Amino acid sequence: MPKDPDIKSSSVKSTAKKGSKFKISSKPKSDTKKTSVKQLSFKDKISKIGVKTKPKKKTIVLVASGALVALVVTIAVFGVFVYKYKSSDRAVKIASKIVPYPVASINGNVLWNTVTYNQYLFELASIQKFYQSQGQDLTTQEGKEKLNQLKNDIITQLEDNEIIRQQAQKYGIKVSAKEISDQYDELVKNAGGVEKVKTTLDKLYGWTVADFKEKIQQSIVQKKLAEKILADDALNQPAKKQIEDIKNQITAGADFADLAKKFSADGSASSGGDLGLVSKGQTVPEFEAVAFSLAEGQVSGVVKTQYGYHIIKVTGKEGEQVRVSHILIKGADLESWLKDQRAKARIVQYFKP
After folding, report:
1. Under CATH, which architecture does the 103-231 domain have?
2. Is 299 helix (H, G, I), strand (E, B) or coil?
3. CA–CA dist 131, 173 (Å, integer)
4. Buried b / exposed e along 168-179 (16+ C-beta atoms within 10 A)
5. Any long-range contacts for 230-233 (C-beta under 8 Å, 24+ apart)?
6. SS3 state at 310
7. Region 45-69: what's the mean pLDDT?
8. Are 114 and 103 in contact (CB under 8 A)?
9. What pLDDT does residue 79 have?
10. Mean pLDDT across the chain, nearest whole number?
11. What mean pLDDT is predicted for residues 88-116?
């Protein structure tokens, strides 16, 4: 007799109810197989039809090499325009902002401590604009000769600026944004307003306000450096020794006017150091404090100011004024110091205008 399907079903259910260890799945075997197959990712699918998903290392190297070669060629091409043709067209100006083509290196190598072609072009455009604003023609034969001299002067000035920057860094000189802003605001006030300043800058030099503030920053650095140089005893020892020797001669009875004519580094030397009548506020504070404290005919000790070392003599008084003579021996000022630093510096020029 055939087996009764109902009896079998009933038997299975009964076994399950009695807590059998066997677990019976209600799903057919074919469904179980399907769930065990993992879903193929898109990457796997396209790989199966022959599409490569990973670039070959050789291809990457070739692309990178090609890009590098193109970059080198571009730099070289613009380098020809810079060093051979001295070009200043728009494309070269843009390239020089990206690539620091060196004009000169100072106390370093071509990779740092350099004057760049972009800096040179900026200063050249500024000076050309200025001469144009003054109605001077730089295209004539005389004008071209003048321009050639100006180009050389620009490079010298940029080299000096780099020397100053390096030395200012050694002295720890810093300029705050507030210092720049305060000086700019004062200049704007004296000039008659922001718009007038902008117009004047553009007309005379082609500068923006940002360009002008950079010039202000350089000016403040130079002023601070000059103060540091004057305060450096080692740099000022020769001047100090000379003024002390002159003071000893005066004390010993030498004529003040004669010594002033012989040694004073001042326009008043020819008149024996005579500065005429001086009112308060006309001289620097250090000089004024001593001059107005002396009795008529009295000679001071050594007085140090931003100009150097002085010996002061009061030769008369009229009301609130005093008649003053002095002998000046200049200390290490920025100009003489820079000349000395330039002589010591390792300067290599890569560009001739």
Report:
1. Orthogonal Bundle (1.10)
2. strand
3. 34
4. beeeebebeeee
5. 230/304, 230/306, 230/308, 230/331, 230/332, 230/333, 232/332
6. strand
7. 66
8. yes
9. 86
10. 86
11. 92
Encoding tokens for residue 188?
């704007």
pLDDT category, 38, cuts 50, 70, 90? low
Q: Which residue has the tokens 């000679």?
A: 299
Which helix H or strand E contains 316, and what residues bound it? strand 308-318
Contact between 113 and 104 (Cβ < 8 Å): no
Listed residue (166, 164, 78) closest to 121, CA to CA: 78
Compute the distance between CA of residue 15 and CA of residue 5 in angstroms, rounded to an integer: 16
Exposed (0-12), middle (13-18) or buried (19+): which is 120, by Cβ within 10 Å? buried
- Strand boundaries in 29-144, DSSP class E: 102-106, 114-116
Is 306 in a helix, a strand, or coil?
coil
Phi/psi for 100 (5° steps) reads -80, 70
DSSP class of 250 = H
pLDDT in tens, 255-278: 999 999 999 999 999 999 999 999
Dist. CA 353–CA 4, nearest whole Å = 112
Give burial (CB, 10 Å; 0-12/13-18/19+) of 311: buried
The better pLDDT of the pair 55, 10 is held by 55
Residue 257: CB partners within 8 Å, gap ≥ 6?
A: 272, 273, 274, 325
For the domain bounded by 235-331, which CATH number is listed? 3.10.50.40
Q: Reply yes or no on whether the pLDDT at 35 is more than 50.
A: no
Q: Return phi, psi of residue 316, to 5°.
A: 180, 165
- As a whole number of angstroms, the distance between CA 209 and CA 214 comes to 9
Residue 65 clears pLDDT 80, i.e. is over it: no
Q: pLDDT tens-digit profile of 139-177?
A: 999 999 999 999 999 999 999 999 999 999 999 999 999
